[in-house]
Design brief:
The protein has 278 residues and is α+β, with helices and mostly antiparallel strands. It has helices at 3-6, 19-27, 38-45, 92-103, 121-126, 139-147, 170-175, 177-196, 198-208, 213-220, 231-246, 265-270; strands spanning 33-37, 51-60, 64-69, 84-87, 112-115, 132-136, 151-153, 162-169, 224-228. The protein is globular and about 55 Å long. The two termini are 35 Å apart. Residues 2-199 form the SsuA/THI5-like domain.
Length: 278
């Protein structure tokens, strides 16, 4: 739509699979910016302090879901203890599972957790290698379509808001503020266009990534597109930091002050009402 050109920003895209790979590319100097979930930022914060979050551009309280085999007898969260549950350990889906179980009064240690890569979701459920999968979209939708009546989505309280964010090195965020402001103006224009013409944008995305439009439409409704920096992002990072320590996923004995990992100046200059940090 020419939003980058409109704001005089030259952008070159490097496509990788997974926010952790995008973040690594940026941190290693292969890119200026990266898009990744907040959990990727959290894990990297225990390794280095030279990067920051510039903004959140999409969030969801229903991207990660629990999909169970009907034959397993799992129909509610209370049925999960004692069953084999697959997920990507140490990722947002793992955090979602633990938090969801704890809030439901269930000990996460009573679930037999198995590490499973996303692309194995259908296979693991189909072959009975797990009783349930905790995974993000579009893998849950694809498995539901493929396995149909063999699987069911388990209801849960939507308490975890997953975010996808724009990351940069601290040094670049200080040196390139005029360019980053123009970039954010372009992002805001793009999001406004998405809200105005959702069907058109969905077709564009399906064509760009060579995906079935039905997949895009099914997962789109769970996503909230908005360029922001909100306090609940910090709250989530702090909760995830404590969780990672308690689970032994990082080598640390205390959590981190995540306010130092957020750079609000750029977005605040562009649209101060989009920043709610305190």
């Amino acid at each position: 739509m020419g939003f980058f050109a409109k704001h005089k920003v030259d952008v070159q895209f490097h496509e990788v699979i997974g926010g952790h790979r995008a973040a690594n590319m940026m941190l290693e100097g292969g890119a200026d910016l990266a898009t990744a979930s907040e959990v990727v930022a959290m894990f990297n914060s225990f390794k280095r302090q030279d990067f920051c979050i510039l903004s959140t551009f999409v969030s969801s309280t229903n991207d990660v879901k629990i999909l169970a085999r009907v034959e397993s007898g799992i129909s509610t969260l209370a049925d999960l203890p004692g069953h084999r549950v697959g997920t990507v350990t140490g990722a947002s889906a793992h955090f979602f599972l633990d938090e969801t179980l704890i809030l439901a009064g269930i000990d996460p240690n009573k679930v037999h957790l198995q590490h499973v890569q996303p692309e194995k979701t259908i296979e693991m459920l189909r072959d009975g290698k797990v009783d349930a999968m905790v995974m993000w979209e579009p893998w849950v939708y694809l498995a539901s379509q493929k396995l149909s009546s063999q699987v069911t989505v388990i209801p849960h309280s939507k308490t975890y808001r997953e975010t996808f964010n724009l990351l940069a090195k601290h040094e670049l965020s200080q040196k390139e503020q005029p360019r980053l402001r123009r970039l954010h103006r372009a992002l805001i224009d793009a999001v406004n266009y998405m809200h105005k013409y959702p069907s058109k944008v969905q077709r564009m995305v399906a064509k760009r990534f060579n995906k079935d439009i039905a997949v895009i439409q099914a997962t789109w409704r769970d996503l909230v597109f908005d360029v922001r920096l909100d306090q609940w992002l910090l709250n989530t990072l702090e909760s995830q930091g404590r969780w990672a320590i308690s689970r032994g996923l990082v080598e640390a004995d205390k959590s981190i002050n995540y306010l130092s990992f957020v750079q609000p100046q750029i977005l605040h200059h562009v649209a101060h009402h989009r920043v709610t940090l305190f």
